[in-house]
């Protein structure tokens, strides 16, 4: 029968049974005794399976001795207990069918020698064959399945929100324009400017920066919803934490306040990390060996820690009084940069920390104004080693305050007519947050550049595929 490598390692096929595994050759080693060892990888788990190939197979001389890294094969044999340490089972091979040869083994880019992670980025089509990218993918998959499971178990509905939209949720002016216009023949206004109103079949349109506003409409009818999808930011940040296209998880909860969703964020992160610790052990051990020594302890510490909570105003005091010299000055009102965030999580609290109640001037229009009139009920979750991983808020549910905020920020009430309707027809307090999914994967794997935890990164100067 056809078997995956992981199913053989897990003992799902009894010793003595015949199975066929299909995959790609990692290495071939020939012993003097006339036996060859083929390591075949199929991605179902970290390790390849070893096939012990006797030289009496009829294609031994002509084919098997010519196999090189990257060739695809179907290898059939009897499941036997492995003599080698670490491996549970191997195959006593009775047949090897070569499915695809490697044209020119000398120039095959994934030949045995190790490549730098930066060089692998140039080989986005072949890097999934490496140990590191395979492990990242399995962890990424585990985390996304765990997140869906977490929300499902808690009665949340997964709402798909649109990617093409007219509204700039975060108000940061970082939207990619979506256009059906003929670039050679752009329509002009009387003032001689490009008439973008004609953009998307007669309306201006962009790629979404967040599904939140749409998610709010569903939360204000179905109580608990979440989104999990791609979002886009046209920011020219060339950092290890920013992508132009990234995935976001955005729960939105009716009748919930900021503390409720801060608790939800803590539960979700711990749930996802526990899933990785139990389901991706071998991959995490590889990261601990090759990428970051403390990969596993760090997750275990996170899961058993209590999140710290601090008001923005107090956090600013801590930064001012800590005696450390920062690149960017600390004053009440600043948008903290990653050095500040990391200091709070790594050196001061030594735990994940939820910073709450930010100055209204550095936050989006939809965040609920606090009684002090200066701050809003916003939160960021900062993780040691990475900084901001989650951003969220209680939403402004009072129509007159929302209108005041729209006006203050120079936004047009008419553009938000449907959003305002939610405040006119049975408004409720509600809250939510957004988790940057790649920042989560980067945190769990210890792979420090976010470009290496998404299959095809879109960032300034890296969108070749
Ligand atoms: O803090 P942000 O901008 O919040 C929102 O978009 C809210 N509408 C979310 C909500 O309340 N529903 O983004 C949320 C998270 C950040 O904390 C960060 O982890 C991630 O998204 N993020 C990015 N990840 C990768 N590349 C970028 N350019 C990112 N920008 C934000
Ligand atoms: Mg943010």
TrEMBL record:
Pfam families: tRNA-synt_2, tRNA_anti-codon. Keywords: Aminoacyl-tRNA synthetase, ATP-binding, Cytoplasm, Ligase, Nucleotide-binding, Protein biosynthesis. Residues 137-455 form the Aminoacyl-transfer RNA synthetases class-II family profile domain. InterPro entries: Aa-tRNA-synt_II, aa-tRNA-synth_II, aa-tRNA-synth_II/BPL/LPL, Asn-tRNA-ligase, Asp/Asn-tRNA-synth_IIb, NA-bd_OB-fold, NA-bd_OB_tRNA. It catalyses: tRNA(Asn) + L-asparagine + ATP = L-asparaginyl-tRNA(Asn) + AMP + diphosphate + H(+). The keyword ATP-binding applies. Its main location: cytoplasm. It is found in: Cytoplasm. The keyword Aminoacyl-tRNA synthetase applies. Its EC number is 6.1.1.22. GO terms for cellular component: cytoplasm. One of its GO terms (molecular function) is asparagine-tRNA ligase activity. Belongs to the class-II aminoacyl-tRNA synthetase family. Homodimer. This is Asparagine--tRNA ligase. The lineage of its organism: Bacteria, Pseudomonadati, Pseudomonadota, Gammaproteobacteria, Alteromonadales. The gene is asnS.
């Amino acid at each position: 029968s056809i078997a995956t490598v992981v199913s053989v390692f897990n003992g799902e096929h009894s010793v003595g049974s015949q199975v066929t595994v299909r995959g790609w050759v990692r290495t071939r080693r020939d012993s003097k005794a006339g036996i060859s060892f083929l390591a075949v990888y199929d991605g179902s788990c970290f390790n390849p399976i070893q096939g012990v190939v006797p030289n009496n197979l009829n294609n031994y001389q002509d084919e098997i001795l010519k196999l090189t890294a990257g060739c695809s094969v179907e290898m059939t044999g009897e499941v036997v207990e492995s003599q080698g340490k670490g491996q549970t089972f191997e195959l006593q091979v009775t047949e090897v069918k070569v499915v695809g040869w490697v044209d020119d083994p000398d120039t095959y880019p994934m030949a045995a020698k190790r490549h730098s992670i930066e060089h692998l980025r140039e080989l986005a089509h072949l890097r999934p064959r490496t140990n590191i990218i395979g492990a990242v993918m399995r962890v990424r998959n585990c985390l996304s399945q765990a997140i869906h499971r977490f929300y499902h178990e808690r009665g949340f509905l997964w709402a798909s929100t649109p990617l093409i939209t007219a509204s700039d949720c975060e108000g940061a002016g970082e939207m990619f324009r979506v256009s059906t216009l003929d670039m050679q023949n752009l329509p002009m206004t009387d003032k001689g400017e490009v008439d973008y109103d004609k953009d998307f079949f007669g309306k201006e349109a962009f790629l979404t920066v967040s599904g939140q506003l749409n998610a709010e409409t569903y939360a204000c009818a179905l109580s608990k919803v979440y989104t999990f999808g791609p979002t886009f930011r046209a920011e020219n940040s060339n950092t290890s934490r920013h992508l132009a296209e990234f995935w976001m998880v955005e729960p939105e909860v009716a009748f919930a306040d900021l503390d409720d969703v801060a608790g939800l964020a803590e539960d979700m992160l711990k749930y996802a990390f526990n899933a990785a610790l139990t389901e991706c052990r071998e991959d995490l051990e590889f990261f601990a060996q090759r990428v970051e020594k403390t990969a596993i302890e760090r997750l275990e510490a996170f899961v058993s820690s209590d999140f710290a909570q601090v008001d923005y105003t107090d956090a600013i005091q801590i930064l001012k009084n800590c005696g450390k010299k920062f690149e960017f000055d600390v004053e009440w009102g600043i948008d903290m940069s990653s050095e500040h965030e990391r200091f709070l999580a790594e050196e001061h609290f030594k735990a994940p920390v939820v910073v709450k109640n930010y100055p209204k001037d550095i936050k989006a229009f939809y965040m609920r104004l606090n009684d002090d009139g200066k701050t809003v009920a916003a939160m960021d979750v900062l993780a040691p080693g990475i900084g901001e991983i989650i951003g969220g808020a209680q939403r402004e549910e009072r129509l007159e305050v929302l209108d005041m905020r729209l006006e203050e920020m120079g936004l047009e009430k008419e553009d938000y007519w449907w959003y305002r309707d939610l405040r006119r027809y049975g408004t409720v307090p509600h809250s939510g947050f957004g988790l940057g999914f790649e920042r989560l994967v980067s945190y769990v794997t210890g792979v420090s550049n976010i470009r290496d935890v998404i299959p095809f990164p879109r960032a300034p100067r890296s969108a070749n595929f």
